[in-house]
Amino acid sequence: MRKGLLLIVAALLLVPALQAQTRKGKVEITGDVQVSELVKKHIEFNECVRTVPGYRVQIAALSGANSRDQAFELKRRFKEEYPEIEVYIVFTEPNFRIKVGDFTSKLEAYVFMQRIKDSFPGTIVKENVYPIHLDMSNIVPETDADADL
């Protein structure tokens, strides 16, 4: 008798909890119209800009007096030797970091680092996330509905 009563009480407690999980709701945000427009723009931007994990070789980290000028001089010198490789100057106060390359694997980055380490001592490989710029002009829509996007 007692087990049956416990089973009934447990069933009565679980049924509302199960029903609450199956309900679907709608969230409505009320606020300034400009905020919702800004959120829409943010969503559109995130859909257009994709990022990929990758690696860059850091050839220097400079700080102190004239570090900005030194960073741009190092960038110029690197571009003279390796014009096909992109160079990035990243400023995170108080440091200027000079990073090169857009490598998709750590191995690629290490191979390139070995190639340049005599000219640029103190290089290290750093993980990086960089954007992929999608060229949407050559994409053919699959249906007429896709053409409106």
Please provide a written account of the structure.
The protein is an alpha+beta fold. It has a domain at 51-131: 2-Layer Sandwich (Alpha-Beta Plaits), CATH 3.30.70.1070. It is 45% helix and 26% strand. The protein has five helices and four strands, in the order ααβαββαβα. It has helices at 2-22, 33-48, 67-81, 106-116, 144-147, and strands spanning 49-62, 87-92, 95-103, 124-133. It has a four-stranded antiparallel sheet. The longest helix is centred in the N-terminal third of the chain and has 21 residues, at 2-22. The mean pLDDT is 79.
Give the secondary structure arrangement, pairings included:
Elements: H1 2-22, H2 33-48, E1 49-62, H3 67-81, E2 87-92, E3 95-103, H4 106-116, E4 124-133, H5 144-147
Antiparallel strand pairs: 1-3, 1-4, 2-3
Q: Main sheet: which strands, in order across?
A: 2-3-1-4
Enumerate the spans where pLDDT stays under 50 for 5 or more consecutive residues.
Answer: none
Q: By CATH's scheme, which homologous superfamily of the domain at 51-131 applies?
A: Sporulation related repeat
CA-based gyration radius: 28 Å
What is the mean pLDDT? 79
The percent range for helix content is 40-55%
- Total number of β-strand segments? 4
Order of helices and strands: HHEHEEHEH
